[in-house]
UniProtKB/TrEMBL annotation:
<dbReference type="InterPro" id="IPR040256">
    <property type="entry name" value="At4g02000-like"/>
</dbReference>
<protein>
    <recommendedName>
        <fullName>DUF4283 domain-containing protein</fullName>
    </recommendedName>
</protein>
<feature type="domain" description="DUF4283">
    <location>
        <begin position="82"/>
        <end position="164"/>
    </location>
</feature>
<dbReference type="Pfam" id="PF14111">
    <property type="entry name" value="DUF4283"/>
</dbReference>
<dbReference type="InterPro" id="IPR025558">
    <property type="entry name" value="DUF4283"/>
</dbReference>
Length: 284
């Protein structure tokens, strides 16, 4: 409920009607404002271009007023905020957004060795998370060592810096796990799995063990896919001599394949009106 309740003192001649007023307090939102600009003083400086700042949500403001129609940055404030966020990574999944608790579990499972990791969600960018590490190097290791997955969907990470887009930015390539169900047992070596997967993309990892006790699991390979790839359901697998290869090809299943756009050749949206680059192509 954000409607404004106007109160006035009663006295004998007061008009008991809705009388127009000259000024009114209104909450304004600043969606997408970069993290290093969110201090109360900076919010006040920005808001003062629109009107007289009264409060910043949850925190007090010092009432600093700049009487020009341009908000002037307070250098020391911006620089100290940059320092605060410099070890941060921005991360997101394509598709449905995970619960915050699921991301906390993801951190516990994957980032234990990096010490404390502070996690923030963004009210104005649902599904985008900020991970603040104790050191810059920890964030760098995560960028270097990935990929990471949550519910089989690839977690996209980028380093926070003042110009970074705090949104689910579409990407040209992404790591995806592929399964090769029904593949004959004599074809399940890491080398052969890599050969098959290389038809689809760049093989990154083969799942460590296809053997769990007495159970042979479905072979899985992590592959870096380009958005303009074909994503075939079957891969032809041939040999010059008879090695009993599957005549109809090797069946391929994709886990958590994000939406992809053939027009701008990126993962993150479909090739329909949601494409920010070529939406008009689809109106024809
Ligand atoms: Zn597109």
């Amino acid at each position: 409920m954000r409607d404004l309740l106007i109160l006035k003192r009663w006295f004998a001649s007061v008009r008991m009607t809705r009388v127009p007023v000259k000024s009114i307090p209104v909450w304004i939102k600043l969606p997408g404002l970069s993290l290093h600009l969110r201090t109360p003083r900076m919010l006040s400086a920005i808001a003062s271009v629109v009107g007289k700042p009264l409060f910043a949500e949850k925190t007090g403001i010092d009432g600093q007023r700049i009487d020009k129609k341009v908000a002037r940055a307070i250098h020391s404030e911006v620089l100290s905020e940059c320092e605060k966020w410099k070890n941060a990574l921005v991360g997101y999944l394509f598709g449905d957004d995970p619960e915050l608790s699921a991301v906390h579990n993801f951190i516990a499972a994957n980032f234990k060795k990096y010490g404390e990791v502070k996690l923030f969600s963004l009210e104005d960018r649902p599904g985008v998370f900020v991970f603040v590490f104790e050191t810059y190097e920890h964030g760098q290791q995560i960028l270097d060592e990935g990929p990471y997955f949550l519910d089989a969907k690839p977690f996209v990470f980028k380093r926070w810096e003042p110009r970074v887009l705090m949104e689910k930015e579409a990407v040209r390539s992404i790591p995806v796990w592929i399964k090769l169900p029904g593949l004959s047992v004599h074809l399940r070596t890491p080398l052969l799995l890599g050969v098959i997967a290389s038809v689809i993309g760049k093989p990154l990892y083969v799942e460590k063990s296809g053997i769990q006790g007495q159970r042979l699991t479905v072979p899985r390979v992590c592959v870096e896919l380009n958005a303009d790839s074909e994503f075939p359901d079957y891969v032809k697998f041939e040999s010059v001599i008879d090695l009993c290869l599957p005549s109809g090809g090797v069946k391929v299943e994709y886990e958590g394949l994000p939406p992809h756009c053939k027009d701008c050749k990126k993962f993150g949206h479909l090739d329909d009106l949601t494409c920010p680059i070529y939406p008009l192509v689809h109106l024809k």
